[in-house]
Amino acid sequence: xxxxxxxxxxxxxxxxxxxxxxxxxxxxxxxxxxxxxxxxxxxxxxxxxxxxxxxxxxxxxxxxxxxxxxxxxxxxxxxxxxxxxxxxxxxxxxxxxxxxxxxxxxxxxxxxxxxxx
Length: 117
Ligand SMILES: [Zn+2]
Description:
Number of strands: 0
Shape: elongated
Distance between the termini: 33 Å
Largest sheet: none
Mean pLDDT: 85
Bound molecules: zinc ion
Radius of gyration: 20 Å
Number of helices: 4
Strand content: under 5%
Structural class: mainly alpha
């Protein structure tokens, strides 16, 4: 029992992403509340600009986390079907070092580079 298997790493990572997503969502909710409270005159409110910037930043974080979650779920599904760690492009095994760095990787380094990921 020295090393965590890929599935365990994926689940751990999934927990992290779920936590991050919950955190970002609650910040977005907080921002929505702030915004609602001062919606009367936000064109002349210097804070309106800051809030919009913060809003886009949080939305960006949330989208990234959601995307990551989908990738992790897809990797877990592949793991369940025995296809985990096999490059979806060329069918060769993905090197362990790469899976270590990116447990949700779907392509080997060569194919990922070729496809821009
Ligand atoms: Zn490949």
